[in-house]
Amino acid sequence: xxxxxxxxxxxxxxxxxxxxxxxxxxxxxxxxxxxxxxxxxxxxxxxxxxxxxxxxxxxxxxxxxxxxxxxxxxxxxxxxxxxxxxxxxxxxxxxxxxxxxxxxxxxxxxxxxxxxxxxxxxxxxxxxxxxxxxxxxxxxxxxxxxxxxxxxxxxxxxxxxxxxxxxxxxxxxxxxxxxxxxxxxxxxxxxxxxxxxxxxxxxxxxxxxxxxxxxxxxxxxxxxxxxxxxxxxxxxxxxxxxxxxxxxxxxxxxxxxxxxxxxxxxxxxxxxxxxxxxxxxxxxxxxxxxxxxxxxxxxxxxxxxxxxxxxxxxxxxxxxxxxxxxxxxxxxxxxxxxxxxxxxxxxxxxx
Length: 351
What we know:
By secondary structure, this protein is an alpha/beta fold.
């Protein structure tokens, strides 16, 4: 219950990645040292010229009086019991002590001003981020599955600015911020949390939660907020996959079964297992991609294309390469092909 209450307190908080992170203790220590330096310098100036000051109590100024005068002067208290009366003392007060007093006040209120400035800057960055965010990808869960999904998406050229991570753990979101991703701290089953991730304007959603029941609730909420987004979810138990599809997921991956099948394939043929692992790892070796049919391929046989076609997506039907209905190719078809992997930089050069 305490954990749920804590999660509710930090729910729906957007965290943008920071360029530089300075610890608060270091900031306070640095400002304290600066304030002590200004105080010590003022005490030194007053004590050196102590003959030019008059104390109403005993008419002489010692080291303690110099510390006292410097303290009340820098803090603008100014009781008036110790005053400079010589020309040199007054000149030092005008040219040195007064600027040091201003500097001391700036140091004292600097922390408050920095907090206000930082809040204003953060609010401006957040508003700008919201206004520019369109057709992005929302990743629910930043565990092993979520990180692997991001790695694959990044290999296809998706920018970090187009990825928003939702996770209930504040530490997890801080780790995502350190890697340059925007994060939302909160329970993804709540619509207000997903709205802060701008899910209603996203193009695709990846659900990689630790529990299957949580994945179902997230899929229901996400589909309610965005009817057109592509939702892909991972489940542990295969029996929960139909329920997740009914909840609005377009594709459901059973993580345990998929790993087991890959293990079995590797036992039968280690080379085949290596090829399958290469295919699902984007950006290296061979890649399995989906692309539209180009005009030059319309009317051709599946085997006449330049790429190695595995399947043809026609409407909602997925046709194998050897299916007679797959040929000839139509302009509205989409091809699932195996191609040689290219880095994002190479793709930009070819485009």
